[in-house]
Amino acid sequence: MSFVESLFNLRESVVVVTGGGGALPSSIAVAFAKAGAKVALWGRGTHHPMAKAADLVKEQAELPPDSPNVAGITVDTASTTACAAAFDETVRSLGMPDILLNGVGGNMGRSSFLDFDEKVFDEVVRLNLMAGLMVPSRIFAKRWIGAGVEGSIINMTSMASYKGLSAVWAYDAAKAGVLNLTQTLAKELAPHGIRVNAVAPGFFVGNQNRALLFDETTGKLTARGQAIIARTPFGRFGEYEELWGAVLYLANPKASGFVTGVSIPVDGGYLSDNI
Ligand SMILES: NC(=O)c1ccc[n+]([C@@H]2O[C@H](COP(=O)([O-])OP(=O)(O)OC[C@H]3O[C@@H](n4cnc5c(N)ncnc54)[C@H](O)[C@@H]3O)[C@@H](O)[C@H]2O)c1
Predict the structure, then answer these.
(1) Which atom of ligand 1 lies closest to the CA of 24?
(2) What is the pLDDT of residues 12-36, one digit of tens each?
(3) Which of 26, 68, 71, 228 is most open to solvent, judged by the fewest CB atoms within 10 Å of its CB?
């Protein structure tokens, strides 16, 4: 095994990717599978069944269709009971997980401050902070502490974690919360050898933001899409594969065993833009 491979391969690992049917999480799951990990995709199966999501990941990771290394598990990660059951199912089908990628999260619409919808605000906060972090992370922390597993949790922060984006009030609040909780949880779980970090994607075209970035009829960038490109020194959106290196680094204790409580921006320079 080469030196680089010894730092980054995950052949001994079992990874759970929540929101595993989603745009960024499913791509990240491909990276985990390519690094040799067994991967459980946890999701609601709203768009397509989780078994289908697993088939797509296997195909993109160039694994045979009958490979047992990628499994789809239907679960609502806002539910503690459902997460506990999904954890048991993961252990039965793939083995004890040692990495959790909290991929559940997202935004719903945008509005001026005067028009914000209280129900939508609650939903977005719950999506990102409860389903996207608190509920599944607690199940993993409990099980890992009980079994003496020194696991790694990776959360999804955002540019909004560092500086609010206009008109997405709940998303701003929630993602600032994800960054804050990543640090707080890192300290709480450090005595157990459990690391908690985050990846902060800049702007990647996904299901939740496509309509904000491109005009549906013309396919051209919206004013918001143009503003983002103008403020991204690299002058483009990110490619999903550009998240892989940061995630594999944070996942593997051989590469990042002394790293906890950090959020790595993968943003084409968005956060360093100035005038
Ligand atoms: N796309 C971007 O540019 C971008 C940028 C920064 C951060 N992020 C973050 O990355 C994460 C993934 O984003 P995406 O664009 O891939 O979104 P996505 O909507 O494609 O993926 C999220 C997935 O989570 C699932 N999900 C939602 N609630 C769930 C629940 N309660 N239980 C189980 N599954 C549930 C959804 O069905 C979906 O498949 C989010 O946290 C998002 O905020 C995305």
Answers:
(1) 16
(2) 999 999 999 999 999 999 999 999 9
(3) 68
Distance CA 165, CA 163 (A): 7
Cα–Cα distance for residue pair 97/140, rounded to 1 Å: 9
pLDDT tens-digit readout, 223-272: 999 999 999 999 999 999 999 999 999 999 999 999 999 999 999 999 99
Helical packing angle, 23-34 and 244-251, nearest 10°: 60
- At 214, give phi and psi (nearest 5°): -125, 140
Q: What is the DSSP letter of 73?
A: E
36 vs 9: CA distance, rounded Å: 6
Are the CB atoms for 134 and 181 separated by under 8 Å? Answer: yes
- The protein residue with its alpha carbon nearest to ligand 1, atom 18, reads 22
User: Secondary structure of 203-237 in the HEC alphabet?
Assistant: CECCCCCHHHHECCCCCCECHHHHHHHHCCCCCCC
Q: Tell me the two tokens of residue 74.
A: 């239907």
Domain extents for the chain? 3-202+243-265, 207-237
Task: Tell me the pLDDT tens digit for each residue of 200-223.
Answer: 999 999 877 888 899 999 999 999
Query: Cα 19 to chain center, whole Å?
Result: 8
Among 171, 240, 249, 270, which one carries the catalytic annotation?
171
Is residue 168 a contact partner of residue 107, using CB atoms and an 8 Å limit?
A: yes
Q: Which residues line ligand 1 (CB under 6 A)?
A: 19, 21-25, 43-44, 46, 76-78, 103-106, 127, 131-132, 156, 158, 201, 203-204, 206-209
Superfamily, domain 3-202+243-265: NAD(P)-binding Rossmann-like Domain (3.40.50.720)
